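Sharing a chain and its predicted structure for anyone who wants a worked example. Both blocks are below, sequence first, tokens second.
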Amino acid sequence: MRSMNIGLLIAGVLGATGVAAGAFGAHALERLVTAERLAVWETAAYYHLIHAVVVLVLALQPREALWRLPIAGFALGIGFFSFSLYVLVLTGITTFAMVTPVGGLLLIVSWLSVALRARQRRD
């Protein structure tokens, strides 16, 4: 019996929540927040979806175990980066933006992890 591909599960959840966040921003937030806050939401949703696709691509790679750390990093990066911005826009509490750079750093480190692991990959 094959085990579940956790990377695909993460990619599916991130992709679905990214689309939902984008749709919510486009259809519900326009009347509720300033244009500046809407732009923040759009940035968060953009990074959310881009990195959900990256997780999907990595989850489909041979030697799945090689990509687990970058997948986890991207998922955490989205959590800290995008979700802190979503909360900021919805609540107006700027304290949440203090963790946004941590998410950005996790995304950068995850990209570097992909680059380093590419050297190890031999199909």
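Comments welcome. The helical segments are 6-27, 35-59, 68-91, 100-118.
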